[in-house]
Write a structure and sequence with these properties.
This protein has 12 helices and no strands. The protein is mainly alpha-helical.
């Protein structure tokens, strides 16, 4: 532990305006809105199967990380190092081990490299994963072991599960059934954790992120199952004007669901762990069902 403290104190001593800005930019490649934007762009516009596999691997990785955080409950660096210069602290939610940003980046970009199998892309993805992990250390929001744990979970889970999810996708009826089962289990888990938090606010730190992960997992799997059953859109070559338009509309609605509903629930005084789960289920559901809605608008 002392060695890890010295690493963070050394990095804190190198802080400068330029490096701080660069690290905050790099760490965004492990954050929710950017990664969701990348995955749904692939799913809606480039390769539907690859998008499905990357998403399923990502949510599985984040579920493992969330469970590990809730079990280990290791404190953040600033709780154990006095006067540590911490940057972008608002992105450091929940407990410290393992790093959720590193898990997210590792899983997403490992999935992208495995899906598209281009050497230059694999190199870019590997660099992004490394830089996201280093940025979490530079910002002093994680211990080195947190980043290593995130790397192992993100890359390992994706390597282990991607092939199975790809095989599952190819069996349409089975994929729909399994998606519905996962959606039901994840929804029950998300609401159960939300109730625990509601009854005991002290558990918020341990279970809030995990309940959001389960909620998103539930929403997307339900949405994808309905879309495949009733439409099962195909991605055509070209048509980039339409693709960019439908992506922009889809993302605007996704942001409106998360941010708009959060503001609404706060204004009417019902913002709590249960409405948070509802927001994330709707957010995920939109990502899966949007092509079915977009069909009516001529976007798919």
């Amino acid at each position: 532990m002392e060695f890890q403290k010295q690493i963070l104190l050394f990095l804190a001593g190198t802080h400068s305006d330029f490096q701080n800005g660069l690290a905050q930019f790099l760490t965004m490649f492990g954050e929710e809105i950017l990664l969701v934007g990348i995955v749904v762009f692939i799913y809606w516009n480039i390769n539907k199967k690859n998008g499905f596999v990357i998403f399923m691997s990502l949510m599985s990785s984040l579920s493992v990380t969330g469970i590990a955080k809730a079990i280990v409950r290791f404190p953040r660096p600033w709780h154990l190092i006095q006067d540590l210069d911490v940057i972008r602290i608002h992105t450091a939610t929940g407990y410290s081990f393992p790093s959720g940003h590193t898990t997210s980046a590792s899983s997403t970009f490992t999935g992208i490299a495995m899906a598209f199998k281009k050497r230059w892309l694999s190199i870019v993805c590997a660099l992004i994963i490394i830089l996201v992990g280093l940025s979490r250390l530079y910002l002093c929001v994680h211990w080195p072991t947190d980043v290593i744990g995130g790397l192992v979970i993100g890359c390992g889970t994706t390597f282990l599960l991607s092939g199975g999810f790809a095989t599952l996708y190819d069996d349409k009826e089975k994929a729909i059934r399994v998606s519905v089962i996962i959606g039901c289990v994840a929804a029950v888990a998300a609401f159960a954790l939300a109730v625990v938090i509601l009854l005991n606010e002290e558990t918020h730190h341990a279970f809030s992120d995990l309940s959001s992960t389960f909620a998103t997992f539930s929403g997307v799997t339900f949405g994808c199952a309905l879309e495949r059953k009733h439409f099962d859109f195909e991605i055509k070559e070209g048509q980039w004007g339409k693709k960019i338009l439908r992506y922009a509309i889809g993302m605007v609605v996704a942001v409106a669901i998360t941010s708009g509903l959060k503001l609404l629930f706060t204004e009417v005084g019902i913002a709590n762990s249960l409405t948070r789960v509802l927001r994330y289920i709707l957010f995920g559901f939109w990502g899966g069902i949007y092509p079915l809605v977009g069909k009516k608008l001529g976007l798919f």
